[in-house]
Each structure stands twice: as C-alpha cells, then as structure tokens.
Amino acid sequence: MGRKYFGTDGIRGRANDGIMTPEVAMKVGMATGLVMSEHDGRHRIVIGKDTRLSGYMLETALVAGFTAVGADVMLLGPIPTPAVAMLTRSLRADIGVMISASHNGFSDNGIKIFGADGFKLSDGVEAEIEALMDQDLGRRLATGSAIGKATRIDGVRDRYIEFAKRTFPRHLSLDGLRIVVDCANGAAYRVAPEALWELGAEVVSLGVSPDGTNINRECGSTSLDAVRRKVLEVRADVGIALDGDADRVIIVDEKGKPVDGDQLLAVIADSWSRQDRLRQSAVVATVMSNLGLERHFAGQGITLERTRVGDRYVVERMRQGGYNLGGEQSGHIILTDYTTTGDGLLAALELLAVVVDAGRRVSEVCHSFVPVPQILKNVRHDGGAPLEHEAVKQAIEAARERLGASGRVLVRPSGTEPLIRIMAEGDDATLIADIVDELAAVVGTHGARAAMMTEA
Question: Taking a C-beta distance cutoff of 8 angstroms, is the pair 366, 259 a contact?
Fold first, then answer.
C-alpha cells in the first residue's frame, strides 16, 4: 500500500499545497516527537533548512510540533543536508530534520528526517510517524514545564567546514587549482566556497546570492550551462555544481564536459581499490547506473551491487553489506568512512584528492569508462496505476526481449513526482531510442497525460 506522506526521500510537495503545509509540518513534528518519546529523557531535535522562501514557514511549524510534545529544538539555519546529518550526531540529538526539496524549484519544499545515528529513518519508523499524523494528538501534548523550548545554534557552518576539510588528505593541498563552484543559490552558498578556499584553491563562486526564490534556477547540478560557461571563461581546472541542499554534485572538467555520479563512483572506487580501502571490493549503486559502469567494474575486479532508486536504499544496502562507497548517477555519493548520507562537497574533495595526487587534469582522471547510450523519458500522469495495465506490462516485456543481454529496460514510478520514468540503455542507440518512444506511447495511453519530458 502506498504511503500518504513519505516518499523515497522524506515528504515533498508544493509549498502550502497538499501535503506540504504548515499544518502537516506541525503534525510531522508532533508525531515524530511522540515516536521518539518511547525512549526515556527529554529529547533534542536539530532542524536545518535550505534557502527557500517557504523554509521559514515550515521551520516555525515544525518547531511548534516538536515543542508541543515536549522536545527541545536547536535551529541551525541554512546549511547542507549532510551537515544536518553530521550535526545530529555531533550535538547528540535524537532527531535531525532538513527542510528542503533538494534539486526541485523554489515553489516546492520537503522534510527529511534523520535518526540519532545520522542515517535517514527506516521505512518502518516513517510508517509509525504516518500512523500518528492522522490521529487526534490533543491528549498527548506536553503541558507546563514539560513543553519544549527552541534555541538558535551559532557556529554550525564553521563546524561543518572543519569536518569537510578533515576528510581531505593532510599531505595534499588545493594550491594552484582554480575552481568554479556553483552552489545553486542553496544551502551550501557559504560553506562550499569557504572550505575550498581554506584548502588553498582559487575559488570562483556562482549561485551564492539566494533570495528565497532563485534556488536551483538556471544553476546548480541540474542546470550546468552557467558553471560550464564560467569554467571555460576563467580557464578553471574544474567546476563543482551542487544542488539546492548540497547532498549531490556534478563535476565539470576543464573542457566543460560534465562528469556524473557514475563517473565519480568509478574514479573513487578505482583509487580506493588501489589503496586497499574499498571494503568488500564492491560499490553500491541503483538500477539507474549505466551499464558501462558495471562493465568497467567487472574489468577491475569490483562488484556492482544495485538497489532500487533512492540514496536511502543505497545506504541501507551499504550498511547491510559493510560497504563504504555507494551512490547514484544523479550525483548522490555516499562515503560512509566519513558520513551517513550523500554529500556533494565531500565527494568533490575526494575527487580533487585523486586529481592532485595524480598530478593530472580532471578530464584525464574523470572519464574512466565510456557509458553505453542511455535514454530516460518521463511521462507525467494524473494518478491511477498505468503500470498495472496489461498492455503496458506486455510492452515492457517485449522491449526487454528485443534488447536481450545487450541492454536494460527499466520502467518505474517516481517516488517524488507524479511521473512514470522510462529508461532504456544498450549498445544500439537507435534501438533503445525506438524502445523508449514506443513504451512512452503505450504508457501515455493508459492513464497518463501526454506531457513528456526527455532527459539525456
């Protein structure tokens, strides 16, 4: 059964509409606080946010919810999602909350919740929270001196900057590197440029003037034109493009060519394997990672473990198998030697360490394999279950038979938007293009609008 509030990455939706209203946010705070009240003691909550206008509104509502059930809240202000995960542990909090819709436009917002260990909550705990949210909680509210309090915490950005810098090898420096960093007018607009500068780089900053409405607008990891132009204009050695909450990163080499999460995984895995740091000689990625990455790893004696889409499922598999490197093609890179969730800045620093240590250009380091042609097409729908139609199932099976062992077909619903995502990849670019178009047409006639968006 589908859940009412939580998706693959917390709760997300259009701000002040549907499930992303102050009322819902307050219920999230109350329900989460009550789930935690099963443990003894007065509970501590940390709350961070990105730079969206609606963040103020949702932050206040969450504070009301948590304090109403007796939890104390520490407000971190605008700060990256991975910083919230780190500070949840550092400040010995019971729960960490990030208010962000990641790479979405400013009109959306979301709520991500971390446990005391800095990892995102399990599906089971989220289900407990959902069950409480629709109940009448009036009789379970704190009263008198049991009501919680809220305080703003100073110096959290400095804590995260020092944490990030400590992951960079002490014997290396970014001296002599000119780096363009695009912070997407989001949560990392202060911390990322400062961390890179303190490590010795000459930093050219983009997307560092948030106004509440320009987060991810023609900037950041989902819109690379600005960073590519600037890299070429200033003859930079590398471009770093973060998303709105800085838990993902896309690199641009000195020639302006993008380097996605799959290529980053290859670079880091190859380096760690040579250093005997790669646990289990394996990397965890999702079903969306390119077949070329899998073939590359096979040639290096590295196993690729695949999970369903969502960085939380990557992390779950990593924890289950004892792996220390995982990620997504979209740029979520998880380095569990250092942190508990995707961290765009840490991933960029790990890459830069390889580049500096090798004394080579980014373009020479970062294109370890040739991706096979891959096409993703999204079909927007109004509800229902188009993938349950027999005609759609038959079309998917026929497409897989046509590709055989030379490629893959994946058709799935989005966990954050009303979309059906259709992906095909393989050695024959013409064939996979035909397959994606045919599947999109079939899905489009069974409960989905014919408004399609194509991604490379």
Answer: yes
Q: Is 145 a catalytic residue?
A: no
176-246 folds as Alpha-D-Glucose-1,6-Bisphosphate; Chain A, domain 3 (3.40.120)
141-158 pLDDT per residue, tens: 999 999 999 999 999 999
Element (H, E) at 24: helix 22-36
- What does the block give as tokens for 138? 């009036």
Domain 259-365 has CATH 3.40.120.10: yes
Assigned fold of 374-455: TATA-Binding Protein (3.30.310)
CATH 3.40.120.10 region(s) of the chain? 6-155, 176-246, 259-365
Joined tokens for residue 68: 């109403």
Ranked by mean pLDDT, the top range of 33-37, 250-254, 306-310 is 250-254
Q: Within the chain, which residue ranges are assigned CATH 3.30.310.50?
A: 374-455
Q: Which of 54, 90, 100, 102 is catalytic?
A: 102
Identify the CA nearest to 260 among candidates 304, 228, 290, 294: 290
HSE value, Cβ hemisphere, 13 Å, CA-based, for 109:
29
Q: What is the pLDDT of residues 13-47, one digit of tens each?
A: 999 999 999 999 999 999 999 998 766 678 999 99
